[in-house]
Amino acid sequence: MDSKVKEAYEYISNHTSKRPKIALILGSGLGFLADNVEGGESISYRDIPNFPYSTAPGHEGKFVFGKLFGREVVVLNGRFHIYEGWDPTDIKMVFHTLKLFGIEKMLITNASGAVNTSYVPGDIVMVKDIINLMFRNPLRGPNDEDMGPRFPDMLGAFDREWMERVKSVFPEMKEGVYIGLTGPSYETPAEIRAVRKMGADLVGMSTVPELIICAHVGIKAIVFSCATNMAAGILEKPLSHKEVLEVADLVKEKFTKIVEKALEVVW
After folding, report:
1. R_g (Cα) of the chain, nearest Å
2. What's 248's domain CATH number?
3. Which element (helix H / strand E) includes 189?
4. Contact yes or no for 60/78 (Cβ under 8 A)
5. What pLDDT, on the 0 to 100 scale, is given for residue 265?
6. What does 80-109 look like in DSSP terms, one character per residue?
7. Any long-range contacts for 158-162 (C-beta under 8 Å, 24+ apart)?
8. Which domain holds residue 172?
9. Which residue positions in the chain have pLDDT lower than 70?
């Protein structure tokens, strides 16, 4: 076992007695759900040995352990982006720590730009597949056979049965392909035209490394992407992170309902 992972795991273990099976990652502007956790025990990323931490606006940067809609969970209120300067292996270390904790299911959320012109800002889309245009893979380097195989099958990242159960509750929910770029600059109109031809419906700067690691360690995931704006060049207006946070704030009620039902039908 990686010594850094072991040290982080031991620190967290000494600061909470909770052992949830489900983790949630809250994207930009979606961290409000962490306030709904009952009996929440918070641990700042910055206090955990060897751990990366969040610097992006809208990401508080802490674990919250407790009950959410009746399920024992750990909420990652803030994630880790390559554009912040973190290496993909730093993200891998976080997920290896969660795997040691016994996490089996991961509900991942993000804020994204809509490449598909049939989407509108505020749509919450179930991600059915990903494209890695970050040109980086968190599994590069020596493989930890105790965590997963050298060559993981990416079909194993998504929990298709969980997705079907959510779709039965929300049959009108849109589905799409998410493409990950490194950022932090927003994409150019030419890049958006290119990724649309590649089959992308949504574009963002996260999630892809997380899903690759989930596939590696055997954590089954479901992904909800909030389309907070139309991607570059679709509308004649500049893109801003302020708009991302404002639209995420407007969909609080809808987003909360989807997460509640998703947790209800997780098993």
Report:
1. 17
2. 3.40.50.1580
3. helix 189-198
4. yes
5. 97
6. --GGGT--HHHHHHHHHHHHHHT--EEEEE
7. 158/128, 158/129, 158/211, 158/220, 158/221, 158/222, 158/223, 159/105, 159/220, 159/221, 159/222, 162/105, 162/220, 162/222, 162/262, 162/265, 162/266
8. 3-264
9. 1, 57-58, 236
Q: Are 91 and 159 in contact (CB under 8 A)?
A: no
pLDDT given at position 236 = 66
Contact 258, 124 (CB under 8 A): yes
Q: Quote the pLDDT of residue 247.
A: 76
Four-residue CA torsion sign, 126, 117, 256, 258: negative
Give the catalytic positions in this structure: 28, 59, 81, 83-84, 111, 205-206, 229, 241
Q: What is the DSSP letter of 187?
A: P
| CA-wise closest residue to 67 among 44, 33, 98 | 33
Structure tokens at 22: 């489900």
Element (H, E) at 242: helix 241-250
Round to whole Å and give the CA distance between 75 and 241: 23
| Domains in the chain, number | 1
Q: Are 190 and 77 in contact (CB under 8 A)?
A: no
pTM of the model: 0.93
Strand partners, 67: 38, 72
What DSSP string describes 13-44? HTT-----SEEEEE-TT-GGGGGG-EEEEEEE
Classified as helix, coil or strand, 168 is helix
**Distance, CA of 94 to CA of 88 (rounded, Å):** 10
CA dist 71 and 18 (Å) reads 12
Do the strands 202-204 and 105-114 form a parallel or antiparallel pair, or are they unpaired?
A: antiparallel
Is 18:72 a contact under the CB 8 Å cutoff? yes
